[in-house]
Write a structure and sequence with these properties.
The chain is α+β, with helices and mostly antiparallel strands. It is 34% helix and 27% strand. The chain contains 3 helices and 4 strands. Strands 2-3-1-4 form a 4-stranded antiparallel β-sheet. 9% of the residues are buried.
């Protein structure tokens, strides 16, 4: 498995747009993203307004294929427009992932 942990901060007043565009990715892009397994999103208590996310793919190849997709690039441009600065990306191999037993 392969993925990224990213940190970002929606611009003040863009929180609703941020939510809409991330939900649109789940509806429209996720079903088309080969190898996409899932994502977890955390809103930080220690740094209000900050969002951290873990995005998981079945392989580095599929992760990079999605990143290079033109539709993904178009989506990212809209996503980036809602942020106060570029996201911090931390790509890498996922060493362990235990199945969840608690529904979100």
């Amino acid at each position: 498995m392969y993925g990224t942990i990213f940190r970002c901060r929606p611009r003040p007043g863009q929180e609703h747009a941020f939510e809409e565009i991330t939900q649109r990715w789940r509806r429209e892009r996720a079903p088309e993203a080969t190898g996409f397994i899932g994502e977890y999103i955390l809103r930080s208590d220690s740094s209000p307004g900050q969002v951290l996310a873990l995005v998981i793919f079945d392989s580095e190849e599929n992760y990079r294929k999605n990143a290079a997709d033109l539709e993904q690039q178009r989506w990212y441009e809209q996503f980036r427009a809602t942020l106060s600065e570029d996201p911090e990306w931390n790509d890498g191999a996922i060493e362990a992932l235990e199945p969840t037993t608690v529904p979100l």
